[in-house]
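seq:
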Amino acid sequence: MSDAISQIQASYDAIEDRILLKIKTHNQRVYSAWITRRYLRLLIPALQGQHPQTGETLFPPQQTLANQTETAEDDLDLNDFDTLYEEPESPEYPLGEEPVLLTRIAFKEMDSDHPQLNLDPEEGPGIGLPFQPDVLGILLKIFGQALHSANWQLDLEPILQLPRESRLQ
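struct:
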């Protein structure tokens, strides 16, 4: 996903027993994906800069997310979690109109100035996000809110409540 993000939403769907992630870009593209319990359990450590299975830090100390100063999404309001998600008037759906089921997490260009976190389905294209502190902090916040609604009791709530500086070092 190379477009600038304008809104991100994660909401729990009780019928599906999944979290629906919606990302809207400034050029009216909408990416929709289902997040399962298993996937969220793997994703949260990745958003904190840890390998989802081994727990190892993904960056050497001099390259930690906390040391990166570049803002990946300048137009994304980092403190606005109250504005309701707004569907675009003429949306384009690069992944299709129905949400894809995410099953894989991939890291790309980790040694570059623009590391990327890919959230992928079993087959086909997925969602590529900048692996930057601002975007990761927003994702942690919205997944924390959705997880609270889901009541999945994954023992991730204390991790999601940590101050941002503690999570990303």
